[in-house]
Write a structure and sequence with these properties.
CATH topology: Pectate Lyase C-like
Structural class: alpha/beta
Distance between the termini: 15 Å
Number of strands: 33
Largest sheet: 17 strands, parallel
Number of helices: 7
């Protein structure tokens, strides 16, 4: 293995057992132990049947809409008509809608929701929507909010907030939005049907910059982030035998506030996309999953884009997973990446050698800006370093075997690993395999800003592998 593929020892790998990873929650650097074993749930493990509280079906169910069933569950729970978990069965079919599952507390107890498909396979039951970051709020309301007045107030509020936006943000552009602690989904598919077909006046990439090229080598229409599922501030979330499909930003998870950890677990799932399609800040554990890189739109793909806080114990972990591809020409070149560490919201970087004379980046409380010769970066952004470990998995030949991890946002280093100043940009960050890399790159800058961050001893692995093989 090359230096760009750091390997854990067997003793280090033991620390990434799912029970160890999933037992921590709370503020980064002060996480509390809160043991959680998602495999202990008999229904999710496949060993028990449940009686559905509500049934969704194209015909003959309690509801024809998944969102309407969730809305009724919220109302009934608030009226004290339900237990601590509500089961919603979804019969086979394609449900063209967006679904929001809000946090639900009744008095001092939390009520969790389970969605499960009743077909023979996840592909039989599909929740689908064409929604992306380039959609205006007005279009969102016209397309997905026709029944908003009939939804429970907590759900309607989110729909109306989206409708008030000039254009959706990444987290608003999702098919399924989960805010419900303890949420479960089983045996169904979540599919974002968007595929590069929108370039309106609200689009940041209206001119197509960064989009796919046509046969003449010109950029086609702009294309945007399009999330299949957002796990938003929800803890103890479990997906089993669920298929997540989109292109850019398929599966997104985030914590309650910066520096807070929430947990989600994915067993026997299929996730596919092309750009940063598994990404976010919180702790996420994937076991026995299929991770499929799509090269049909782009020449280079990134599977993961973690932005884990450096003081959070665990980021994204894969165990016993298969990293596969779609057979496209780009995939067969063997140059795709496992991922890159998401430098979230960065505008000015303290990394690299500036090619702007006298340029410097300084620490600020909240705002980031880039006004040469000076830019700022907040502590929150600086500490969102990104962590990912892959264990006991099969990694296809579409991944660059010698250098599977990439830098963030361009930048170039020569064969000796030295920065090339002419390629520097204000959002650049080199790949950081361990905590030692962070202090090696930024030690002098941290001192200059009067910032003291304790360096772990020994250094912590941020990007690492154990017992993987090429498939």
């Amino acid at each position: 293995m090359s230096d760009a593929r750091p390997q854990l020892s067997a003793a280090e790998a033991e620390k990434f057992h799912y029970l160890e990873v999933l037992k921590y929650t709370g503020r980064a650097g002060a996480e509390r132990i809160d043991p959680w074993d998602p495999k202990a749930d008999a229904f999710m493990a496949g060993g028990a049947k449940v009686r559905a509280d509500y049934t969704v079906a194209k015909e003959g169910g309690d509801f024809s809409s998944v969102q309407m069933a969730v809305s009724q569950a919220i109302r009934d729970a608030g009226a004290g008509k339900t237990g601590d978990r509500i089961y919603i069965a979804v019969r086979p079919g394609i449900y063209d809608e967006t679904v929001i599952v809000p946090r639900l507390a009744v008095g001092d107890r939390s009520v969790a929701i389970t969605l499960f498909g009743t077909g023979s396979a996840p592909q039989d039951t599909v929740i689908r929507a064409n929604i992306d970051q380039g959609m205006s709020g007005a279009d969102f309301l016209a397309t997905f909010g026709k029944a908003v007045d009939d939804y429970a107030p907590v759900i309607a509020e989110i729909y109306r907030a989206n409708a008030a936006l000039d254009r959706l943000s990444t987290e608003n552009a999702c098919v399924l939005r989960v805010e419900n602690d303890g949420f479960q989904a089983k045996n169904l598919s979540i599919r974002n049907a968007y595929n590069c077909d929108r370039a309106d006046k609200n689009s940041k990439c209206e001119d197509g910059k960064g989009g796919p090229k046509n046969a003449a080598g010109q950029f086609a229409k702009g294309w945007h982030q399009a999330v299949a599922t957002l796990v938003h501030n929800a803890d103890r979330v479990h997906f089993d035998h669920v298929r997540f499909s989109s292109f850019q930003d398929t599966l997104y998870f985030k914590g309650r506030v910066p520096g807070m950890t929430v947990r989600s677990y994915y067993s026997h799932c299929h996730v596919e996309g092309d750009i940063d399609f598994i990404f976010g800040r919180s702790t996420a554990y994937f076991e026995a999953c299929e991770i499929r890189s799509l090269g049909s739109r782009v020449d280079h793909t990134y599977v993961v884009a973690p932005s884990t806080n450096m003081h959070t114990r665990y980021g994204i972990v894969f165990n016993d997973c298969d990293f596969i591809h779609d057979g496209s020409a780009a995939a067969l070149q063997g140059s795709f990446s496992l991922g890159r560490q998401w430098f979230q919201t960065v505008r000015a970087s303290p990394y690299g050698i500036p090619n702007i004379e006298g340029y410097r980046t300084r620490l600020a409380e909240t705002s980031e800006f880039d006004h040469p010769p000076e830019g700022t970066i907040s502590l929150d952004v600086l500490e969102a370093v990104g962590k990912c470990v892959i264990l006991n998995s099969r990694i296809g030949a579409h991944i660059n075997q010698q250098a599977p991890w990439d830098d963030w946002s361009g930048g170039r280093r020569n064969s000796d690993g030295e920065f090339v100043p002419g390629e520097w940009n204000t959002r650049y960050r080199p790949v950081q395999y361990t905590s030692a890399d962070f202090f090696r790159y930024l030690g002098d800058w941290l001192k200059g800003e009067g910032l003291s961050i304790d360096a772990p001893d020994p250094a912590e692995p941020w990007l690492a592998e154990f017992n993987n093989r090429q498939a």
